[in-house]
Amino acid sequence: MRLEGISTDDSHSHVSAGWRIVSSKVPFRIQTLAFLFCITAAAILVHGYHPFVEDAEIYVPGIKKALHPALYPQNPGFFASHARMTLFPNLIAGSARLLHLPLQWTLLLWHFASIFLLLLACWRLARLCFQNELACWGGVTLVAGLLTLPVAGTALYIMDQYLNTRSLSSFAVLFLLVNVIERKFWSAGIWALFTILIHPLMMVFGISLAALFAWMRSRDSQQYSALALLLFPLTLFPPVTPTYRRILDLHSYFILLRWHWYEWLGVIGPILILGWFQIIGRRKNLATLALLCRALIIFQIFYTAISLLLSVPGLQRFYELQPMRSLHIVYIIFIVLAGGLLAESLLQKHFWRWAVLFVPLCAGMFYAQRQLFPATPHIEWPGQRPHNPWVRAFVWVKDNTPVDAYFALPPDYLNLPGEDQHGFRAIAERSRMADLGKDSGSVSMFPALAKTWQQQVDALAGWTSFQSSDFRRLKQDFGVNWVVWRGRQVANLSCPYSDHGLAVCQIE
Predict the structure, then answer these.
(1) How many domains does the chain have?
(2) Do residues 281 and 161 share a domain?
(3) Is 57 among the domain residues?
(4) DSSP state, 7?
(5) Is there a single domain that holds both residue 313 and residue 444?
(6) What are the start-end ranges of the H helices in 131-199?
(7) Is residue 90 part of a domain?
(8) Which long-range contacts (CB under 8 A, 24 or more apart) does 350-354 make?
(9) Cα(415)–Cα(266) distance, rounded to whole angstroms?
(10) Which residue of 60, 294, 450, 468 lies most exposed, with the fewest beta carbons within 10 A?
């Protein structure tokens, strides 16, 4: 189905005057899937794959505990709170059991599938917006080339270098929108249910955009307005305690007024360009493109206004809604439309023009990823011997310490030089004390963890100058019996592992 311009009225149409829906099904060829498969593989080669970095420290332990419940007997709340809110860990763990594959291979297959399905959804959306199939490939290829593009100041990428809940919710939201545009509401409902089970917050953004598009296209606006009101997330929010304010200082991207000027450009720029795209769509009789641009503009202005409203004193307790993460879906669709218009008006069928655009673009994205993970192979294949010294230490911990071992690490270990954001829990499969990085993010969403987090992080203050008495204190107060240590040798620590200045030591 696609909207086409005509010069007659249609009393049965549910779109604006001057437009109607006509049947124009495009055969879905096996060559299309093959091409999408190749683009997916190329995207991973450009952007890399790192299964246990950044937010994987939250998501992977939930999967591993679903597979092996004896893991992580201490401090499970910092990842289990997320796991209880989503079907994601059970889905991945269940597929690993079903396929009889090691978890690392299961994660890679799901990561590949999530990128493939995102690009497929982009292709489907582009087919509804453009008459020229070449434009559709322009949109898909541009998304593939910009997968790790930061989304303004939200601390999100279009697609992460590892599998997480956003990997699945991204394509689900796009398929939801595609089905709404095609008026396949039962299929849209299935995708909405899938998104709710995987990522409830992204579901709010996806369904609200789809409802807005449907409202703008329909004469019966009250139905969709009521639906949109039901979608606003009225959940329980944390009180603004001193600990929660400390958490907000660690995650300033929650607060729109703390964004830098160039991050504001990432909000304003797409809105202005989408206005230009809307004009182009009207001129070219691309009604779906024009209407979608208009919906995206209203959608993002709405969520930006909400984010600004939350900056009012007294409303800080609602920061966990993170309304600016609505930009994630805006960026994906914006890139699809930009790539389509580029291909249609500039690139066309000239191979050298495509090469001039995409070769430097992909080279730049590859270079940026190497700067993010300089001490780690660009693609961390399952079963590959780890090159990163921190990862080697974590693997040694997994293979040589008891399952109930309880570790202490530097509270900011994820940001130390050479660590490259590799998660200890995700790799070592052992419990650890709370850190300043990922665990503070868990507290921002689940404030019941705040007291535990503050006690443990405060106990690790002054880590670099710890003596044997400090480690004994950790053991007495928290039950810690192992540490990952970097630097000088400390008396009364037995260190069976040492490599490149890193040691794994037992507290006697």
Answers:
(1) 2
(2) yes
(3) no
(4) S
(5) no
(6) 133-145, 165-181, 185-198
(7) no
(8) 354/141
(9) 25
(10) 468
47-87 pLDDT per residue, tens: 999 999 999 999 999 999 999 999 999 999 888 877 788 99
Domain residues for 269?
29-47+101-348
Question: Torsions phi, psi of 6, nearest 5?
Answer: -140, 170
Is residue 151 in some structural domain? yes
The chain-wide mean pLDDT, for the chain, equals 86
Q: Which residues of 463-472 are buried (b: 16+ CB within 10 A; e: fewer)?
A: beebeeebbe
pLDDT tens digits for range 375-433: 999 999 998 999 999 999 999 999 999 999 999 999 999 999 999 999 999 999 999 99
Structure tokens of 56? Answer: 């994987």
Contacts 24+ apart (CB under 8 A), 446-449: 446/77, 446/81, 446/82, 447/238, 447/239, 447/241, 447/244, 448/77, 448/81, 449/77, 449/78, 449/81
What pTM value is reported for the model?
0.89
**Same structural domain for residues 131 and 251?**
yes
Q: Binning pLDDT at 50, 70 and 90, where does residue 251 land?
A: low
* Amino acid, single-letter form, for residue 276: W
Once rounded to an integer, what is the mean pLDDT over residues 449-457? Answer: 88
Residue 374 inside a domain? The answer is: no
- Residues 321 and 408 reside in one and the same domain: no
Q: Could you tell me where the DSSP H helices lie in 310-401? A: 327-342, 351-372, 389-400
Cβ atoms within 10 Å of 198's Cβ, excluding its own:
21
Instruction: Choose the final residue of a domain: 316, 348, 380.
Output: 348
Residues 224 and 297 in one domain: yes
Regarding whether 393 and 333 lie in a shared domain, the answer is: no
Find residue 506's DSSP bridge partners.
482, 494
pLDDT of residue 226: 42
Taking the C-alpha atoms of residue 359 and residue 193, their distance in angstroms, rounded to an integer, is: 39
- Last residue of one domain, picked from the residues 315, 348, 381: 348
Do residues 347 and 138 make contact, with C-beta atoms less than 8 angstroms apart?
yes
